[in-house]
Amino acid sequence: MDTATAIPANQASEKKIDKPRNFLDIRDFSHEELLYIIELTEKIKKGELDVTKVLSNKHFGLLFGSASTRTRVSFQVGIRQMGGFAEHLSTADLQLSNHENIKDTSAVLGRFLDGLIVRLYDMDQYGQGRENLKLISRYANIPIISALDDKDHPCQVMADLFTLKEKFGPEYKKKKLVFTWAYAERQKSPGVPHSMLSAASMLGMNVTFAHPKGFDLDKEYVEYAQAKIGASGGHLSFSNDLMEASENADVIYAKSWKAMYIPKEEEYKLRNKVRPYWTVSERHFKVANKGALFMNCLPIIRGEQATTEVIDRPDSILYDEAENRLHAQKAILYHLYKQ
């Protein structure tokens, strides 16, 4: 993988950070780089770092194969605020819809563009979305940023990490974060929990993943996190009881994801069976710490992943979390493109 060099603003004369060309997987980055991107996000949001010309005269495509609100709009706005140009490219409008080979599409787009933000995944073919991103990267030969695939959503989690630091300060890693599966009618990618699992284990966070039996996360990510958490000084646990997991929580983060190890028909039966126990409600916050925050990466259907009462509670920060997508993604772009 090609690498470039970035210099933290507060360590310009001391240290250089090697970074991968793309932004596809949290695990491609170091502990120091994640902290650096969080620091960049804070500087950008506060207006302490001028990024208005970093992408001057650079052209980006947003290659999306599924619906998007926050990811699409935040990237379009962010790129323009950094001096670049952003064009939404729906796969339905491209020759991909007529079965053009992804290699040919990628090779041509790479001749036109300076970068691609890509959202591609198929809930029935776990892992194919990631393979497609790798193919695009190989043949386009320009930086590729994941806007969610079937394995990771690194941009969302970088915004989440910054949001936690923004709310709790430097002690955010010690706060108990409960990241829980929550009911949703439609299948959703496990990208966010996988990226959070990787980041939390690398940064030494205190996190509990809760999910019903049958909705286990990818073993590859779990084993990676278990290998990392000891050295980072964090705490990682798993629970099949949301009430138990919620005890003394400082944050409850609700997110649905598909089951990866059981058939689709069986999953839907199980999903509906466990719904009463896996919709986040006020009863979960009654056993959490006072002032515990509620997070969700949106979109959320009220009454599914969480009740309206929880979504609208004073300590719900899902809109702050959504806003921070803009700032975090500008930090990622700065990290990848600032020379």
Automatic annotation (TrEMBL):
Any coiled-coil regions, as ranges: none
Domain Aspartate/ornithine carbamoyltransferase carbamoyl-P binding residues, every copy: 21-166
MF terms (GO), sorted A to Z: amino acid binding; ornithine carbamoyltransferase activity
Entries under SUPFAM superfamilies matching the protein: Aspartate/ornithine carbamoyltransferase (SSF53671)
Domain of life, source organism: Bacteria
Keywords: Transferase
GO biological process per UniProt: citrulline biosynthetic process; L-arginine biosynthetic process via ornithine
Domain Aspartate/ornithine carbamoyltransferase Asp/Orn-binding: residue ranges: 192-336
Keyword Transferase set for record: yes
Entries under InterPro entries matching the protein: Asp/Orn_carbamoyltranf_P-bd, Asp/Orn_carbamoylTrfase, Asp/Orn_carbamoylTrfase_sf, Asp_carbamoyltransf_Asp/Orn-bd, Orn/put_carbamltrans
Family: Belongs to the aspartate/ornithine carbamoyltransferase superfamily.
Protein name per its UniProtKB record: Ornithine carbamoyltransferase
Lineage, highest ranks first: Bacteria, Pseudomonadati, Bacteroidota, Cytophagia, Cytophagales
